[in-house]
Every structure is written in C-alpha cells, then in structure tokens.
Amino acid sequence: MPQWDSGQYTKFINERTQPAYDLAASISHTNPKKIIDIGCGPGNSTEVLLQNWPEANISGFDSSPEMLAQAKASNSSINWFESCVEEWSPSETFDIIFSNAVFQWVQEHKVVLPRLLNILNDGGALAIQMPARYNSPLHKQLIEVAEMPEWVEYTGLPRTQLSLSEPSFYYDLLAPITSRLDIWETKYFHIMDDVQAILEWFRGAGLRPFLEALPDNQARESFELEVLRKYSATYPKQKNGKVLFPFNRFFFIGYK
To answer: What's the pTM?
Structure first.
C-alpha cells in the first residue's frame, strides 16, 4: 500500500464521498446492529454510515496511521483501529461490511471476499465500491507514461499493484455464495477548474505509488509533467473554461 497523505486526499473530499453515499443508500438492511468500515481513511465514509444508521455500533479501520489520526479527530464516538484487510480476523460478526475505494489495493479478491461474507450475520451485506479503471483513460495514460524508458525500471510494482477485475469475475465468484447480489457501475462527472486539478486529484490516490517509486523529486516532477501533457489532450476545456472529468466506479452488494 502507498503512504497516504490525508491532506492531499481530502482536497476533493465531496467527490470522493459521494460514492459512499450512493453505496450506503443501496444497502437493503432495515436495522443493522454492527457495521464495519474497511479502509475508513480520514473517516468520511464512516460518517456516511453513522448518518444512515445512527443507532448502530460502528467501527472503522485503516492501515494508515495518518488517515486514522484524522478519523479519530473527526468523531471520537466511533471505534477506530489500525489494521489491513488481509490481516483482519475478527472474533465477532457484522450486519454490514462496507468499503469505499479500498479494494483496488487489495490482492487475492477470490480469497478475501468469500472470507468476508463468512464474517456477516445471516441477511448481512458486503458492500464494496472500487474505481472502474479497466476502461479509464486516467489509468491507461498513467501506465503509458510509467512504461516510458526513463521510468519503466522504477514502476514495475505500481504498474501491477491495482487488482480490480471485470464485473463478470465478481459475479461468478459471489453469485454462488450469496442469497442476492447487486452489481452496477456509475459514471460521475466531476467539474474541475482545469486539467491541473485532475492531476491534483490523482496525487491523493492512484498516482501516489508511482511517485513514491521514482528516485528523486526531479524524476517525479518530469513524470507528472508528462502525465499532465497526456491528460490535457484527453480532458479538454469546456466553453466556460472548466473541465469535465468523467470517473467510473464499480459497485457490488452481496447478501449472506
């Protein structure tokens, strides 16, 4: 996992939180008692859960101490703790296991997701959202830059770090072991001041592991400039000077 910067991440907090609202609103569970937010980050998605189910016992965990510090400062009533998905092995069960924009960093979905379903109570929901990178020019052009001769020797790991598969993979994996499975994709159009703002957005998420892999600040600056050059052609200005930034996200909710 990359080293997260909570300040950078929260620069576009409204845009990053909207999918959490949409995912939570789609969960069919009338009275959940125990809810866990996997990869809670600075606590924005966990607050969504609290707004939806204020009477529930809600916990959130993240692997980033910096993110957790901000989460704890935002709401002391929630049980925050440090862990990662692969190592989390609770002795209790939950009515909702929720995760907003985290599982793209988690390997071995075919192992982890069935294990999480087993941690649910009967009728419980496993609700997950991930950026849909498979057709995203944001991601494809980043990989093109990362494979250029001056950077390819440094970017081997980040080029293969994201683990999102096609929707059919999740259907085939989860349909046989759930009582109901909802799968959908949503395209969000974020209105950005300019294409530089798209790069700024990406610094708080998918760009971070690439920048961390480069040897020095000069290489990072050159890398970002090349990414920006490609994005400038892909995301043109509108008549009023703003830039439309389409961003697809993949959702599924599996019920035990």
So the answer is: 0.90
